[in-house]
Amino acid sequence: MRKSIIAGNWKMYKTINEAIDLANGLKRELFKLNFSSVDVVLCPGYCALSEVAEVLNETDIGLGAQDVYWQDEGAFTGEVSPVMLKDAGCQYVIIGHSERRQFFGETNQTVNKKIRASLKHGLTPIVCVGENLQEREAGQTFNLIKNHLQGSFEGLGAEALLKTVIAYEPVWAIGTGKTATPDEAQEVHQYIRQLLKEMYDEETAGQIRIQYGGSVKPENIAELIGKPDVDGALVGGASLKVDSFSAIVIKASEVVK
Ligand code: PEP
């Protein structure tokens, strides 16, 4: 049985005070949640990590960053190391988000280095893969996913894979309001699990949690997560409000598979 995981990617939104308010609101709303059926993670911007960590202290809600550099320290102006993220209170880190690939030159090679560095410091990587509209329309979805997965996990063994979460995020569904249908999501999630079985083994592939991301809302979470290979969601826009994110989390916790 895989436990669902819902993560909120706050992207470049929320000042420190706004982030504290949002975290406090979620803490209040999710107070009674049955955390044995779902993991919840908040991923604020770097500046607000320590403050949100303080709000989440002694709750079951996890904290994640949105990116990381692969060196422990050094003359790398503007970068943030896994040591710093741990120090700020993070347990998770999003790696290879499509916005990083699209606007900041992220590649499979840099994703691979970031996964290694995160694992070395005990952070759980949430590794994003996904095709854009052009690739989908050209029938290249599976090839693209294969390229992202094989490149990102190159040289990493089953033990490393088991410590990560994968997020399937079709780029055409991110921030567009256009969600993959539950069947479309399931088709790719099933492909990812099959590929992991070929790259590793059946037992390992069966244990990996694969989140779906792309315009997830309270209205569509239950149907998405009801699919056999969809183990949670990476949520952008709808994670920025207490009402919508808590509704997503509560609905996800109620889905029995
Ligand atoms: C994301 O940022 O990973 C994402 C899925 O965004 P949205 O939910 O807004 O589509």
Describe the structure.
- This protein has 257 residues and is of the alpha/beta class.
- The protein has a single domain (4-253), classed as TIM Barrel (Alpha-Beta Barrel), CATH 3.20.20.
- Helix content is 43%, strand content 16%.
- It has 12 helices and 8 strands.
- The chain has helices spanning 16-29, 49-56, 82-88, 98-103, 108-120, 133-137, 141-152, 158-161, 182-199, 202-207, 221-225, 242-254, and strands at residues 4-9, 38-43, 61-65, 92-95, 124-129, 165-168, 209-213, 232-235.
- It has an 8-stranded parallel β-barrel with strand order 1-2-3-4-5-6-7-8, surrounded by 5 helices.
- α1 packs parallel to α12 (242-254), α5 (108-120) packs across α7 (141-152) and α7 (141-152) packs across α9.
- The mean pLDDT is 97.
- Bound molecules: phosphoenolpyruvate.
- Phosphoenolpyruvate is lined by residues 9, 11, 169, 174-175, 213-216, 234-238.
Helix percent band: 40-55%
CATH homologous superfamily annotation: Aldolase class I
Q: Radius of gyration over alpha carbons? A: 17 Å
Model regions low in confidence, pLDDT < 50 over at least 5 residues:
none
| CATH topology assignment | TIM Barrel
Structural class by SSE content: alpha/beta
What is the global morphology? globular
Total number of helices: 12
Number of strands: 8
The CATH architecture comes to Alpha-Beta Barrel
Number of domains: 1
CATH class: Alpha Beta
